[in-house]
Amino acid sequence: MSKMSHRKTTPIAFLFLFLFSVSAVAQMVSPETLAKRARRKNLTVKEWNTDAGSKTRWLDRQTTYDSEGRKTEEIEYTSYGMKWRVTYEYDETSGKVSMEVEYNDRNKPVKVRKYEYNTDGTKRKQYNYLPNGKLQSVKVFEYIFSE
Description:
Strand content: 35-45%
Number of strands: 8
CATH class: Mainly Beta
Strand order of the largest sheet: 1-2-3-4-5-6-7-8
Mean pLDDT: 85
Structural class: alpha+beta
Radius of gyration: 22 Å
Order of helices and strands: HHEEEEEEEE
Helix content: 10-25%
Number of helices: 2
Number of domains: 1
């Protein structure tokens, strides 16, 4: 039977571990992506269409971003109102989209997508669920680099 040494973990060790994990996450997000996000903080973009003949204007699409510049909602409109809506949730450690919920024109959920990522930040799997939680399909991403 071997003896295990029990050492007290110092606050400096916790600080080092925290800084290491933060730098690992920061390496997954490119400087370009961070710059784009900085410009989109708390932003709502509305896209308008105008009929050439009657000059009637209507809302075509609305995209909303959170305080970190990440897309949180996208809504497509038609002449009669909302056509569809998608909401986005993010994993706090990786900063990547962890779940999307797609809604129909009556604002009822029609599809839920959950994502898994590789260690390099690329998508590994997409799980597609019905609104009742039943797994509908799984999409696996394969990356092949040509020479």
